């Protein structure tokens, strides 16, 4: 069994676990704001009303929490996975919103089961797209299995070691993913209490 095969299987298992975690955690998050008696701090990660935008937190928050840990665990195999999960999350949010407005526009109303399906589609797009990107970029081989032992590789290794002192989670991938998630979080935090006068951000009357 090759290292590449081990990494691919690890990613597959982690992707499945992430989907299950996000579906369960996202469902529970829908009720947390009311359970907390509408605590201010809870509003940053749980929907405060029935607007479409607020319900995107049900996807964003679990994906962020799961991927932050997953990115560290699978970093030897997929050093840029956290970045791809962030990109996948953006795509999943877009898919969720697109499906919701498409079906509700065609039918002229919303249905609970279709809303659940929209959430499921968003989760699937998030994880499968990001896993596809990680595999497509040729990741899946541990750093220990790469490279030779000549002088140039030694020099590269020395530079890599120096960079890891500054960027312990990877030079770009992990931090780029973190930046995308943090920007999204700040946007959620602001829009929660200062929603634009657009249907996406407004609770249905």
Describe the overall structure.
The chain is mainly α. The protein has one domain. The chain contains 7 helices and no strands. It has helices at residues 3-35, 52-55, 57-73, 81-107, 112-136, 151-166, 173-193. It is globular and about 55 Å long.
Determine Rg (CA atoms, Å): 20 Å
Strand content: under 5%
- Total domain modules: 1
How many strands, which pairing sense, and closed or not: the largest β-sheet? Answer: none
Note the run of SSEs as H and E: HHHHHHH
Would you identify the regions where 5 or more consecutive residues have pLDDT less than 50? 143-153, 165-169
The global form is: globular
Tell how many strands the DSSP assignment holds: 0
SS field, number of helical segments: 7
Percent in helix? 55-70%
Structural class: mainly alpha
List keywords for this structure.
205 residues; mainly alpha; 70% helix; 0% strand
TL;DR?
This protein is mainly alpha-helical and 205 residues long. It has one domain (3-143, 163-196).
